[in-house]
Amino acid sequence: MGLFFTDPLFEEFAVSIGLGLGGQLGEVAAICAQIEDGDDNAWYTGWSTAADRLAEEADHAAARGHRVGARETYLRANLYYAVSYHPLFGAPVDPRLLTAFRKQSEVFGKAAAAADPPGEALEIPFENTTLPAYFFRADNSAESGPLLIATNGYDATLFEMYLGQGLPARQRGYHCLLFDGPGQGRLLYEDGIVMRPDWENVVGPVVDVALQRPEVDPQRIALIGWSLGGYLALRAAAGEHRLAACIADPGLFDIAEAMRARLRAMGVPEAVLERLPDLDEATVAGMTADMQRNRMQRWAMEQRGFWVHGVHTLPDYLRVATEFTLAGHLTRIQCPTLVCAVQDDPLSSTATAVYDGLTASKTLLQFTSANGAGDHCEMRNRALFNLRPLTGWRRACPPARGSPSLQDGDLPLGIAH
To answer: The AB hydrolase-1 domain covers which part of the protein (predicted)?
Structure first.
């Protein structure tokens, strides 16, 4: 039995997202108490109804001039809308997901307007479309300052990323620029634009926009990516050399190896894993059946993975996964790089290989279960992450001295003054 549910998917979403990104314990517990294990309809209703109520309360607070209270409440509504639609992932897109996502977009816009200084919604030109983005200044200073660009992974949007990356960065003196790329947020949900591996071509236009802003010091632009964004940030840094630093949380070398770890946990034999993605029909049928019986794996691979990559079968997913690799790219990274390794996160299984393959100044930062930060992206102890990688990044980024390996350590990359 977990904190709220026996269903592992519900427990993960309620604790890691609902609580991990700023939900109130009593509020989350009250929502979860109304939901039966595994009932996706009740889940959506419970969380979205709570978000609707908070959005209304925030509107009333804003109308009375209570800016801080309104902002905080809008941000919780934003979070609960996100939690409400996570079990609904998949193609074709569930109309309820779109309804909740559009409400989430609206309340986040209101929260951004109530920020101090206010956040600015952007549409960044990208090929034949635009990337939705928000720029937040750290303060009202006229001097240029450091910027943290945050990139997402498989299943969050820039709105949740603000809670996990943007707000902590602002509190530590960084401007922040958050965006969703192909396979993420609006581009996936509304436009059907799927994920791609060449993230340097996605981040390049984002850096172009950042460099046009007088608030941004062009010599102090860092890029951070969480979850699949650990791969995406590293891939971007390999081709985008205007970055002063890069943080990969975790150090994900390729999706295929992470997928092997997931399949290994499902009991797939090593002999089969070694043949990926080339499998006979009987093996594929067996693996598909195993996936269907495992709710967590079905959501992660079929509902989320197939959808994000625009594929419809397990063999196609396995094949497209091989395109997302850092082979041949790590030596092209020139900026100081922080690689996070998280004890119980399967996506961290390649963190040491990433670290070993880097030739630029580098740091390996290990997060452990002993400090409650050993799960995926330290979601059950984000405060520790915010303390360690972000502390010390406020000043300029001179060449790092040495390439340390830290365990729950401090001052990564040696770039602080």
So the answer is: 162-374
DSSP summary character for residue 306: I
Widest pairwise Cα distance in the chain: 65
| 355 within 8 A of 264, measured Cβ to Cβ | no
- Is the CB of residue 223 less than 8 Å from the CB of residue 337? no
Domain architecture of the chain: domains with CATH: 1-114 (1.20.1440.110), 117-254+324-417 (3.40.50.1820), 255-321 (no CATH)
Residue 279's pLDDT band (cuts 50, 70, 90):
confident
| Mean local confidence (pLDDT), 20-35 | 96
Q: What is the pLDDT of residue 319?
A: 92
pLDDT band at 325 (very low <50, low <70, confident <90, very high): very high
- Interatomic CA distance for residues 168 and 174, integer angstroms: 9
The pTM for the full model equals 0.92
Helix H or strand E segment including 249: strand 245-249
Closest CA to 169 of 203, 199, 134, 130: 134
